[in-house]
Amino acid sequence: MDYRFDKEVNIPVKNVTLKGHLTVPTDARALIIFSHGSGSSRMSPRNQFVAKKLQESHFGTLLFDLLTPSEASQFENRLNIDLLAKRLAEATQWVDKVPEARNCTIGYFGASTGAASALKVASTNPRIHAVVSRGGRPDLVMNELPNVHVPTLLIVGSLDYDVLNLNKQAYSLLGGEKRIEIIEGATHLFEERDMMSQVTRSASEWFAEYLQAVSEFEKQISGLTRNDMKAIFHNRLEAGKMLAEKLKKYKSEEGVVLAVPRGGLPVAYAVAKELDFPVEIVLTKKIGHPVNKEYAIGAASLSDYFVIPHEDVSDLYIETEVKRIRKRLKKMYELYIGGKEPESVAGKTVIVIDDGIATGNTLLGTVHLLRNGNPGKIIIAAPVASPAAVRKLSRVADDVVVRITPKEFHGVGAFYKDFRQVSDDEVLFYLGKLKDIRKAS
């Protein structure tokens, strides 16, 4: 195999220099940075085995010591996730200074405590586009997991009982696309015959899907950063007008716009006005995870609910949450809709609109609930959405239409100059204006 870079490197970080080995095959478009576990180093035979196999699959690799020898001799440093994450982030920055590697898409391969460090960095660093954890400890960064929106694969041995249970708990909190793969007969270090080969095959497939197979919408915005785009929309109304341009292809169809209250209403108003579609309110709310209410595990409506199965979420919890949500939805129904019969979606093109989509989990549940009304098509639309959310929703909706899908995504509000909360009075104002327009026409 030909290489454009294959040598020992020195990585300067604050106050110290870390030893590493950077290998970049000639045709590599992606680079995997290894974050090893406590007590390990770049010389780990397991990680070197995985790195060699990844190189054969045309990935670049960087194995490096997260600690100097003197630092590693102090046991507390080996478990200092904050320190290890900082070193990993600094090494990732250093890669951009190497001409042979700077244009590569970056993924992380973490083992044991190193997986926790990898996930911690991935929760805030937009340069990371996929993570694989081998026998990892994601439970050590539980609070950061809902902010991990990059595709994450957790590989655990079936005989690694404690770590397997911890991974199952952590899995439910991960905010992006995810999978947990349990390798039968493997213990924590995957020392059994052919077990590391299974790990490598799974990791290679995951990285190939999410790093090498870069989607078209990501290519289109590859040169943009969040700073370039953070003020791209003046307000929701302007964002709606820009979104409407991309939805004109549905203008000739019989359709209805469903707005996610409350922020989706100004956006939906501009779209509905352009398409001459009636507007309804999406009367669904997310069911939050018991550990982190902001992380959606499903959605509930007045008559039904949908939940993504989680081992650590009880039926009693779901039942209690659905009752609480329906009480709130009933008040919204009375305020926004009153005695009016909701618009039928049967056979129609249904365009569900929000002001932005981060994880997509709530809308995922909403799509499943809307299918019960037998619509002709379900289109998800928003001015801005994370790439992970677009991938996720594309699997359940007939189309996902967004104005921008920035790689650097850390919140919907960052892309608006004016992102003030929409009041109930504003919702009623926009609904009233649309009724007047339709009556006049």
Describe how the helices and strands are arranged.
Elements: E1 3-13, E2 16-25, E3 30-35, H1 45-56, E4 60-64, H2 69-72, H3 75-78, H4 81-95, E5 105-111, H5 113-122, E6 128-134, E7 152-157, H6 161-171, E8 178-183, H7 195-212, H8 216-220, H9 226-229, H10 236-247, E9 255-259, H11 264-275, E10 279-281, E11 284-288, E12 296-301, E13 305-307, H12 315-337, E14 349-353, H13 361-370, E15 377-384, H14 387-394, E16 399-404, H15 424-440
If you had to describe this structure to a student in words, what would you say it looks like?
The protein is an alpha/beta fold. Helices cover 37% and strands 22% of the residues. The strands form 3 sheets. The protein has an 8-stranded mixed sheet with strand order 1-2-4-3-5-6-7-8, with helices on both faces. A 5-stranded parallel sheet has the order 10-9-14-15-16, with helices on both faces. Strands 11-12-13 form a 3-stranded antiparallel sheet, with helices on both faces. Helix 4 crosses helix 5 and helix 10 packs across helix 11. The longest helix has 23 residues.
Descriptors:
441 residues; alpha/beta; Rossmann fold; 2 domains; 8-stranded mixed sheet; 5-stranded parallel sheet; 16 strands; 22% strand; elongated
Structure summarized in a few sentences:
With 441 residues, the protein is of the alpha/beta class.
Strand order of the largest sheet: 1-2-4-3-5-6-7-8
Estimated helix fraction: 25-40%
Number of helices: 15
| Through-space gap between termini | 68 Å
Overall structural class, as computed from helix and strand content, comes to alpha/beta
